[in-house]
Amino acid sequence: MSDKRFKRDTRLGHLGRDPARFDGAVNPPVYHASTVIAPDTATFKASGRRRFEKGETVYGRFGTPTHQMLEDALSELEGGADTVALGNGLQAVVVALLTVAKAGDHVLLADSVYAPTRKFADQMLTSFGVEVDYYDPLIDGAGLDARIRANTVAVVLESPGSSTFEVQDVPALAAAAKARGVATIIDNTWATPLFFRPIEHGVDLSVQAATKYIVGHADAMLGAVTASDAWANRLRETVYTMGGFAGPDDVYLGLRGLRTMGVRLERHQASALKVATWLQERPEVAEVRYPALPEHPQHHLWQRDFDGASGLFSIVLAQPYAPAAVAAMLDHFDLFGLGASWGGFESLAIPSDPHRTATTWEAPGPVIRLHIGLEDPDDLIADLDAGFARLTRAAG
Predict the structure, then answer these.
(1) Is 303 found in the same domain as 207?
(2) Residue positions of the PTM N6-(pyridoxal phosphate)lysine (predicted)?
């Protein structure tokens, strides 16, 4: 459903569906397929050329109708030309980078990027002969222009940044890169295309760890990359060459999650705002790093570019609590779990250690990353209140 007459949640309920194609079934079936039989030799020989054609199923590694339904839906939501569904968020980052960069090229990454993105860039990209540099995520367009070299091919953004939630001036940075013929890649997992559409702001490749809010139930791994017109064919060719498609069952769970993502995100946002506002008054907390709060340093950029905020943010503790005191707080929550990932219905609280090379991270105390799930926010506040009591007792 590409009809812009309909509002967001209506479109979420109908995108990536084609009941007439599937005998009237409301949801598309899960296609488990590797081999796809061709009717004749001519068709078989032409199958490689047809892999770019929408609606064609020529080999399992090139995707099935299940994949096409999710990819078409995400392309529509992101405002892009094409989307590829991949096994997880990191794979999506890797595919986006390898779509653009080759040996001898130079890539600039925000100093606040997702830690596994940094690890891939530092260990794998460099081993492929790609030069890697990091930049201050709060750099402006002129500052970014000064960092671009003759061999720079990509600028990687993440807004807000992992753990520390700096909001970048995406339109200005994308414009500066485009003026120099440099591609831009952004990790858009935090906002999803419901709250931010990077391609409309000049970005070339938008990456999502669809494991998070698209799946939304902590039961599947999924990634996605959406490309602008200029990069759509290159992106799909990269995926076909690497062989990185997601499994059909996980893709189906992504389609299922898509239907309720709008209402879930609204609840995540409302609860996160309530909890974050409460946290601002706690003496144990020096800062709540949540872009939707007016006190956030880049709140004006978030307000200008985003349509909402998700349930993920961090708090900076007010003093250098010892690791044992922080563990006393985190180890005994009734509702907040200690676990990687986020975006599901469950609330999470983990210690975070921001890593910087281009800038310096300075804070009065440890950082704790919170994901506010779908539980009642008053219950979550009570759980946090008890956690702060444990923190204080352990600190002596």
Answers:
(1) no
(2) 212
Tokens 């996605």 map to which residue?
224
3-state secondary structure 73-114: HHHHHHCCCEEEEECCHHHHHHHHHHHHCCCCCEEEEECCCC
- 394, amino acid identity: A
Q: Per the domain annotation, does 296 fall within a domain?
A: yes
Same domain (yes/no): 243, 278:
no
Domain end (from 236, 257, 278): 257
Domain membership of residue 211 (yes or no) is: yes
Residue closest to 138 by CA, chosen among 294, 286, 297, 289? 297
| The dihedral formed by the CA atoms of 198, 199, 200 and 202, expressed in degrees to the nearest 10 | 90
Q: Is 163 helix (H, G, I), strand (E, B) or coil?
A: coil
Q: Where are the alpha helices (DSSP H) in 148-185?
A: 170-179
Full domain range(s) for residue 14: 8-257
Beta strands in the chain (DSSP E): 82-86, 106-110, 131-135, 152-158, 183-187, 205-208, 223-227, 285-289, 312-317, 348-352, 367-371
How far, in whole angstroms, is CA 228 from its chain's centroid?
17
Q: What is the CATH number of the domain that holds 183?
A: 3.40.640.10
Backbone torsions φ then ψ of 63, nearest 5 degrees: 100, 160
Burial of 313 (0-12, 13-18, 19+ CB in 10 A): buried
The CA distances from residue 262 to 174, 197, 342, 376, in Å, are 27, 15, 16, 18
Count of structural domains, the chain = 2
Crossing angle of helices 89-100/232-242, nearest 10°?
A: 120
**Claim to verify: residue 240 and residue 281 sit in the same structural domain:** no
Q: Using one digit for the tens of pLDDT, what is the confidence trace for 200-232?
A: 999 999 999 999 999 999 999 999 999 999 999
As annotated, the active-site residues are: 61, 114, 187, 212
CATH number for 382: 3.90.1150.10
Residue 2, domain member (yes or no): no
pLDDT in tens, 136-148: 999 999 999 999 9
Is the same domain home to 240 and 290?
no
- Its pTM stands at 0.94
Using DSSP, state whether 64 is helix, strand or coil.
coil
Same domain, 230 and 307: no
User: Per-residue pLDDT tens for 11-42?
Assistant: 888 888 878 888 788 888 898 988 888 888 88
Backbone phi, then psi, for 26, in 5-degree steps? -65, -45
Residues 76 and 181 in one domain: yes
